[in-house]
What we know:
little secondary structure
Amino acid sequence: MKAASIAPLLGLALLLPAGLLHAIPLPDNSSVADPATAFAITNTGTGGAGKFEINNGANSKDALTAVTNGTGKAGFFQVNNAANNTYALQAQSNGPGIALYGYNTGTGRGGVMEINNAANTNIALYGYTNGLGQAGNFQVNNTSNAKEAMRAVSNGTGTSVYGVMNGKGRAGWFQLNNTTSVSNGVEVNNNGLGWSVFSLNTGVGFNADNHPFGSGAGWFEINQQPSPADALVGRTNGTGYAVKGINTGFKMGLSNVGGSGGGGWFEIQQPQNNGTALVVKTDGTGRGETIDLTNVNASNTALQVSNFGGGPGIVTQVEGTISSAGSFINSNNSNTEPALYAQTNGSDYAGTFIGGGASSNGVYISAPAGNNGLNVVSGVKTGIVPTSSGARALYTEESSELWFTDYGFGQLKNGKAVIPIDPTFAETVNLNEPYHVFLQAYGKAEIYVSRRTQTGFEVRLLHKGDPSVEFSYRLIGKRRGYEQTRLNRVPFADSDPNLLAAKQAMGIHSSEKIAKK
């Protein structure tokens, strides 16, 4: 049947019984030149409007081919019934092939899924599988293509990419399979004011101490043992911190007993690892590390270092020429605690200070006038010197008052000698206060101090003896500014455990009894 005679039949198809449609001979490759639809079937009943089926299992042709050489669409599927909640297009395959395949050999897109209704809250593209494969796969096969395999863009206020896992798998996985690739596995760029990466864990889970993977907000791991790369690098070119750990919550342990979580944790679990758990380095002019305890009600330490090995708990080393290896400062004038507290329960010293260089010194202590510069409880103050029988200790003479001593030599002339006091020494003591002069004659003579002034003292021969005898003297004066200091009370040391043995030997068993005395 020719095209001119088919067109009227098709136009009448809707008015004729359905059986008359079988009068169209097949195959039919007719064409028409008409502005109206070339082929249209409308079903006002409960059946389908059209069906295209191939029953030959060896047939590899398409059941339906839609081709346009114009500027319109090759196919259009539309649901006009607003109450219809089924699909506008359903593609189903019972074989191993693809149910729906979009293929573009031109410069357009392979597929577009779009919702134009601003009030529509449904998903524009939904991939769902009941099998074992992926619900979606986006792949670039062109090795010269530098574009993204998948790009998610949102012009609204929602999330561009959102991964949800209701099972026990991962919510997201990013992998580089090319071993020579130097690109990043995940790269996030943020041109706004928010975080580039924000990881939130709302579960309790296990902490990293009790579970091999933990349930933290983030985990960074390198499985290649020879790799020298860092598991996590934080870098900033701005004025903020490269890495900042903040804990605002409450950590629950396995026994559901709440405890305070830390702001950061650095741990090496391999006993053979001789690396450093935490390295802090700056090439700038600021501090290498600042540790602040800002809670005024806190009674804990700002820094605690525990070492169960044989090395030091803390080592600070300065390579420069003008910096200190360590500085401990109490900047609050109301603080009554020590700036540095060192304690040992072992048999060695609580602190050791060594001047290891040729021009190095030992310990320098500075305190305001009238305050204590050094207190030694129970122990002794010694000077260690070498001898032929080994190093020996020389002990300090203690006094009930603050005295400074000067030694010297003199000689009588005609039974008399006037000894001037060293002007520099005189500036360190108060010579308006009585001072001591002890004499030792080196000959047959009895000598005595006949007069003392602020500038010197006079020595005379007492009776018969050598009028030209040589002698030595020891001058002791009260330290300037400490003239009234004598056996001051030190109440903060009353409870010092190192005084316990001495107090028990004296029959003293409480600080109240000491105070009464």
